[in-house]
Amino acid sequence: MPNIAVIPGDGIGKDVTIEAVKVLETMDKLFHLDLKLNHFDYGADRYLKDGTTLPESGFKELRDNYDAIFLGALGDPRIPDMKHAKDILLGLRFRLDLYVNHRPVKLIHEKLCPLKDKMPKDINFVVFRENTEGFYVGIGGNFKKDTPDEIAIQESVNTRKGVERIIEYSFQYAVENGLSHVTMSDKSNAMQYEGGLWQRTFDAVKERYPKIKTNHYYIDAIAMQMIKKPEQFEVIVTNNMFGDIITDLGAQLQGGLGLGASGNINPERNIGLFEPVHGSAPKYAGKNIANPMAAILSAQMMLEFLGFKPQSDVISEAIEDAIEHDWTPRDLGGSLGTVEVGDYIVRYIEENVAGKLKGI
Ligand code: NAD
Ligand code: IPM
Ligand code: MN
User: Fold this and answer.
1) How confident is the model over 123-153, as pLDDT tens digits?
2) CA angle in degrees (0–180, nearest 5) for 46-294-185
3) CATH of 101-132+158-257, one of 3.40.630.30, 3.40.718.10, 3.40.50.2000, 2.40.30.10
4) Does the beta carbon of 244 lie inside 6 Å of ligand 1?
């Protein structure tokens, strides 16, 4: 019985989570997945009410009693330093050691791509973003704060083990998925210490995978290449911050942040955190405007992680069908609301379950 913790979070995170949960409940009912969903109110409102971000007991509960966590998004203009998100989102990534941030970039239909003449076969790759190190560790400080002489230091931490395991995972993923090419990206021309470690580690790991072709781009060049020739990519591996940046770019190649899904995992642990790539988009919150597809595709990744790959395929089919027939929200050129898109996906699953059950 998979136990799933649901943290809707803030802004449109709440709107899209309702739809993802609707889809999960439908999948549970029709395919008898025996999912157990439990909601947690961690987020901006709770933090502003009683100062709670992620309490120690709450962290332990998630760690010890759950198979997966589903998160909407965090971020609220009333909390400019994102204190709550640091504790909840980065806290879970770091403390559960979810070192792989898996972010697929897959064009579902050519009409959604901002690049001319690009087809679904041209945009289909994954980004593996290192998820536990780099600039995100929060080491640094301010000196002479709020004076004209202020100094701000933000350190990027890169360990051999941390770099090696994400690169290794990328090669493993390529092998297991019949792919033949891994690209590494860094900024070793300007930041020689961390970049040098990434370069040397990539060179060492690739020796162990002689059948996999490799190349390297500096991070500025890969941003350009993702636009110029996205069809060259199969697997991209990069550090925490660069991975954050290029996956928003990758999401737009698919049609926008309304479609970018992600999983935060540690292949050696039996827990993963699944969430859309987008944030809480406060200006759209509660208005039935946000696209729930990124959240629903993240829920699909979660079901796959929980061992329900054959069943979960119906979810991407439903999304493909919705896009094909322009049953989409505003960001994809349609006129449906968040709820109506969720309803459409649910209906598609209900109507196609019989055929799917035969194949499982
Ligand atoms: P954002 O991703 O929230 O939104 C940027 C823009 O993308 C929106 O204005 C909107 O035009 C579009 N967009 C995003 N998601 C959409 C959706 N589902 N449907 C339709 N359009 C969508 O990024 P931001 O504005 O830079 O950040 C807002 C807040 O979210 C900030 O507090 C930020 O720190 C936080 N954030 C959180 C996460 C997370 O929880 N994983 C991720 C990114 C940003
Ligand atoms: C993401 C977000 C987060 C990140 C923020 C909210 C800390 O942008 O998940 O992509 O930078 O990892
Ligand atoms: Mn981001």
Assistant:
1) 999 999 999 999 999 999 999 999 999 999 9
2) 100
3) 3.40.718.10
4) no
